[in-house]
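subagent[fold] <- orchestrator: predict structure for attached chain, return tokens only, no commentary.
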Amino acid sequence: IRLGIDMTGGVQIEYQCEIQACDIDQVRAAAESTRSTILAQDPGSMNEINVYKISGQETVVVEAGFVTAGRTDAGVETLKSTFRESLSSHLAQSSSTRYTFSRYVNVGESFGAYIKQSGYITLTIAILAISIYIQYAFSGAISGMASWPFAVVTGLSLIHDLIIVFGLYVATAFFFPEFRIDTFFFTAMLTILGYSINDTIVVLDRIRSNLREKTGKMDLAHLIDASIWDTMRRSLFTSFTIVIVLVALFFFGPDTLRGFVLVLLYGTIVGTYSSVCIASPLLYDISHRDRK
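subagent[fold] -> orchestrator:
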């Protein structure tokens, strides 16, 4: 799993350059060379680096993660200072473009631990709160049928979405190192919950409506199947519209948001799939067993 510097601890260094003179490949080469030099002296001390240009500005940002395990705080700070000074010196010697040091951010490992803990807690609370609300909203709506299966189905489908999207993102990051787990990732996962529950509720609400109108006229399996097809067109068109926007953002938006957009793209596809192929069949299994 590739982690961003806000998870592992590291530094973020910004350089200003002359108008239309920023060469991101040149800066990336200098950063990689500096990293290689440090790793030769202290193997395993650094993670991969990330170099990108801020859209609309003549600013290049270099992010570097450092391994803190087995090292004292003073030792890690020395590594960070060495990297910053060596990178600035390397850019001054190897480039004809003048890069002016403008900003330095030092991120501690404890901040990453706080973000991870907060992310897990927030995701758990969101899933529980959504499930409880679904049970409340569907309670008493259908005579002879409990509302708790709808709540259970909602919670399980949301957990399914998070696990599958997480797996897809990690698999993508294996081939494309620029995608990392960071604060944007957790924000995107929370956004996925909002979209996925919206699509799931559309299907479940149609099932509820058909249960009111067609109870006794159609068995539960065929009723759920009919409800899925009633909402299929709407679900696919809505998801396809969102995918178009996300694809445009992914290819033409800022580089810093590509990971965030990729998570949303996976979440939109998986959320649409789970509403039809996970939530609805699971509702049948639970409700059918409960009736028996």
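orchestrator: received. Logging for downstream: The mean pLDDT is 84. Strands lie at 10-16, 46-53, 59-66, 100-107.
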